[in-house]
């Protein structure tokens, strides 16, 4: 198998420049999120403790029986296993709820940023994951530009996707594309845009890279600016370092170089609440090499509450 980097195949492709923008979050909303994250941390510790106790009990012979449900009888060891599974389900659902709420509390800042970007007069793409966030973005876009935009999400029928792409590519009045991270990250050419904005993060770095490349591909003649909107003191503070670390692994595996987002720029951005330029690159992998699943995202995010890598500590300390 021969693997070629994007920079080797498309030598004339312009640079891709990434940056991070930290959004101001309402203090009341931030406090609620911090409470949620505290509960997740506690659930995570309880789950680990439960697993440790269960592993210890495996070494002992157990004949005790406890009632469970109406007609089921479980040994103490089996009871411990059921409790652990229930704790796992609880912590996973809590984390995904926190992930959703992080997107929702960012909405005022996202709307303001869209308004500022619109004034520049350029075409741009804006990606989000949760439907309510996409709806709020679309509402703001309608205020700014009426019907001169497109939206592609999981409910967009295949026959309309090409029609919407053609509208964005060929109609100068159509300046904004509102896109779902999971539904619009592949198979679309939107090179009339020179800016790509991520209103929300996502657990698979390769998916984010593919979304970036809707604008950064053949027929693009301008530098593509990629902006990640980060909510300070939200779950983004946990997810972004995790994404960064995984992207670094992808980059090193394929090219042997660290070419992706710089941790230091994010740290500076958090402290100064400013726009911070990151790295420019032209050799983003063509293939999805990271296989991060939703389950792995949950585990990685939970681990970040209690175990920090050196890179994460640099960002969050």
UniProtKB/TrEMBL annotation:
Disordered: annotated span: 37-65, 276-295
Compositionally biased region (Polar residues): 276-287
Compositionally biased intervals (Basic and acidic residues): 40-62
Pfam families: Helicase_C
GO cellular component: nuclear replication fork
Signal sequence residues: none
GO biological process: DNA repair; replication fork processing
Keywords of the record: ATP-binding, Helicase, Hydrolase, Nucleotide-binding
Helicase C-terminal domain boundaries: 109-267
Domain of life: Eukaryota
SUPFAM superfamilies in the cross-refs: P-loop containing nucleoside triphosphate hydrolases
GO molecular function annotation: helicase activity; hydrolase activity
PROSITE patterns referenced in this protein's UniProt entry, alphabetically: HELICASE_CTER (PS51194)
Record-given protein name: Helicase
Organism listed in the record: Reticulomyxa filosa
